[in-house]
Amino acid sequence: MDNLDPLLHQPLRTQIAAFLAGCDEASFSELKRNLQVSDGNLESHLKKLIAADYVGLRRSDGPGRTQTSYSLTPTGLAALQRYIQTLQKLLPLGAAPATGPADGALAGS
To answer: CA of 38: how far to CAs of 11, 20, 32, 35, 41, in Å?
Structure first.
């Protein structure tokens, strides 16, 4: 477990990185809505990811207030990929995927 990135090992930061990996960029509002977190919680975790250069931000001026968009940096993408690979190594080889109660009920029918 020593090889797991401590920054990404926090679940919300993993979710932020994974969400941003799946899109070019996202606004604060998009992240908040999709991850279902409070403003303060999201802001706190974004600051840590930005400080580590895992997430970058872009501010654009337009009508009204400034819009901030967030994106995963190449450093962040590489860290996320390493994190996922490390988690995969922790899984036992040849282990069957976990099944839910409905799957087990169907097998017994």
So the answer is: 15, 18, 7, 9, 5
Residue 33 near residue 16 (C-beta atoms within 8 A): no
Residue 40 falls within a domain, yes or no? yes
Distance CA 64, CA 59 (A): 13
CA 83/CA 14 separation, integer angstroms: 9
Could you tell me the two tokens for 107?
């097998």
Q: Flag whether pLDDT at 109 surpasses 50.
A: no
Each residue's pLDDT tens digit, 39-68: 999 999 999 999 999 999 999 887 788 889
The domain that holds 42 is classified in CATH as 1.10.10.10
Tokens coding 60: 């654009």
Tokens encoding 1: 């477990």
| Cβ contact 51:84 at 8 Å | no
Token pair listed for 4: 């797991």
> Could you tell me if residue 23 is inside a domain?
yes
